[in-house]
What we know:
With 294 residues, the protein is of the alpha/beta class. It folds into two domains: 5-167 and 217-293, Vaccinia Virus protein VP39 (Rossmann fold, 3-Layer(aba) Sandwich), CATH 3.40.50.150; 170-216, no CATH class. Helix content is 43%, strand content 18%. The chain contains 14 helices and eight strands. The protein has helices spanning 14-25, 37-46, 48-56, 72-78, 92-104, 142-151, 170-182, 184-190, 192-196, 201-212, 222-231, 253-258, 268-274, 279-282, and strands at residues 5-7, 62-66, 84-89, 110-114, 127-133, 153-164, 234-240, 286-293. The protein has an eight-stranded mixed sheet, sandwiched between helices. Helix 2 (37-46) packs across helix 4 and helix 7 (170-182) crosses helix 8. The longest helix has 13 residues, at 92-104. The structure holds S-adenosylmethionine. S-adenosylmethionine binds at residues 16, 19-20, 23, 28-29, 67-69, 89-91, 94, 116-118, 133-135, 138-139, 210.
Amino acid sequence: xxxxxxxxxxxxxxxxxxxxxxxxxxxxxxxxxxxxxxxxxxxxxxxxxxxxxxxxxxxxxxxxxxxxxxxxxxxxxxxxxxxxxxxxxxxxxxxxxxxxxxxxxxxxxxxxxxxxxxxxxxxxxxxxxxxxxxxxxxxxxxxxxxxxxxxxxxxxxxxxxxxxxxxxxxxxxxxxxxxxxxxxxxxxxxxxxxxxxxxxxxxxxxxxxxxxxxxxxxxxxxxxxxxxxxxxxxxxxxxxxxxxxxxxxxxxxxxxxxxxxxxxxxxxxxxxxxxxxxxxxxxxxxxxxxxxxx
Length: 294
Ligand SMILES: C[S@@+](CC[C@H](N)C(=O)[O-])C[C@H]1O[C@@H](n2cnc3c(N)ncnc32)[C@H](O)[C@@H]1O
């Protein structure tokens, strides 16, 4: 019997329909034919953020990945742990890819849920960790998506939110114009991520479509997301690129249990502008906020 993909009661507005049609044609991030447990572990360990968070959340934790796409991160948190991982996405085809990967690799501690984050229909105050990276800026109401995601998190639980940056995405915006005029070839020549990818066409295609041909994306500043945190009683701990006194490297159980709110650097907008010129801008201008629900 194939692992079940639980269907949540959800309504999709026109914009969400458009986004799910897009991801049905281009499931993100997609798997390479050689992928298995060990390649997923290697990929997860390569990112300081996922490695650090997995180290802190590996023993009987309840973890929700919101907008899991093809569920690589959910798999990473599930492999070799006794965690209970939940992967929620609005695109059935992406979840199918995640489910098939889990089946093939005997990963039994992930539950797959098909639904819209703009509907609030999961158990409240339940998860130790809610991870939502690269998702909310593709929804018709990112703030509502954030508030819903937060409602599933326990008190003192950790929330991770990754969004496109208003300044940091400048280069990508220019490349989107080039893509419209010249098509994929110019991106193959210019995009540093594509150039680094040694892998199959599917992988490159998923990245190019997601970055340059997306039907719905918005951008945000540090100030805006820190206001979301304040308004919803979430202590801001750290960010990537860093803007608080706590560097991701220093994050530990003590800092999490103290949940002491950190202010972002007064001149942070200058660092955001710098994203245009450093590796963050080349990576699509994503920034991450790490917080604790009070
Ligand atoms: C860029 S992908 C990110 C996938 C994954 N988080 C990652 O970082 O690899 C965005 C995902 O968000 C999902 N998504 C977009 N709108 C959504 C919504 N309203 N509810 C749930 N998922 C949504 C899409 O289906 C897609 O799989």
